[in-house]
Amino acid sequence: MQWSKEEAAAARKRVEENSAVRVLLEEQVKYENEASQYWDTFYKIHKNKFFKDRNWLLREFPEIIPVDQKTEEKTQESSWDNVKTGAANCFSRTHCPIMPEEKNLGMKRCGSSDGPSKARSHFSNLDSEEHSEGPLKTELFPGSSATFRILEVGCGAGNSVFPILNTLQNAPESFLYCCDFASGAVELVKLHSSYRAAQCCAFVHDVCDEDSPYPFPDGILDVILLVFVLSSIHPDRMQGVINRLSKLLKPGGMLLFRDYGRYDKTQLRFKRGHCLSENFYVRGDGTRAYFFTKGEVHTMFCKAGLDEKQNLVDRRLQVNRKKQVKMHRVWVQGKFQKPLHLTQKPSKLVSPLLSHD
């Protein structure tokens, strides 16, 4: 849905009001330094009962299915919400009409990265091109024999992990990595009855920690899933996180993003005194949330050297008929691809005909 001018103005006014009073600086430092503890406490309380399984993932992100399996899926209805193939391909850049909000930013060639990330993995001394071109030794790392690899960042209790594993069960050549900086969440994933160590590796990892290694080398991932995770990170650290994640992708790999958009009902519901900085808030349980614009998302991923394939604002009206409440939801969704070939600036050549003594 599209908002009326009156609705947009009311949302802006509400944000101005609830962000007028900022959280004290010393409290902000505490929320930053103890972020993992707040999320750990969250999962100890709620276990895997708080969030619903993300059965919409395949509809929005068909890229998480290996190409060979996509062909097979076209002959039957999706196992997730009985989504038909046509719906699964809804956001294909080839078949979908560009939405009005996509016309300015959609399908743009992004700029190059500001520079290499300082992050290093256990395998940082290995050449990533060697891994992408030749067979990988099975003893090197979990999933090294797979031909299609996915990483979900911020897996929580597995609300994306298990729908994905369910879809990949007929694709033994695929492997799913999933991480979270809350150790309690990772433990919930590993204890789940559907967890398969032969096709999944769950591990504790803080994406903001430059020295925290991954259990696999750079440049091997086909897909990275970053769904409702970046918003929980301090805005000053977001770019560094994206830069490091882009290094994990193989050429042609996709980073799939979805998160809170500016003026989502979650932002409008915050009361005065919960604002940390502009469009960044803290909940009562100590967890945090940022609310993005499409332009901000475009800039961050472009600076990481990724090409924009999709970048849209998803506005929806949710109605609770029982309570007779209408809620305006706003999300930003994007797909960003690592270039197949890194472009190099041509060297300046001086023609001998134009040279001077």
UniProtKB/TrEMBL annotation:
InterPro entries reported in the protein's UniProt record: Methyltransf_12, METTL2/6/8-like, SAM-dependent_MTases_sf
Name the record gives this protein: tRNA N(3)-cytidine methyltransferase
Residues in Methyltransferase type domain copies: 151-255
One of the protein's GO biological processes: methylation
EC number, UniProt record: 2.1.1.-
Keyword Transcription regulation among UniProt keywords: no
An example molecular function term from Gene Ontology annotations: methyltransferase activity
Function: S-adenosyl-L-methionine-dependent methyltransferase.
Gene3D superfamilies in alphabetical order: Vaccinia Virus protein VP39
Entry keyword set: Acetylation, Methyltransferase, S-adenosyl-L-methionine, Transferase, tRNA processing
Gene that produces this protein: METTL8
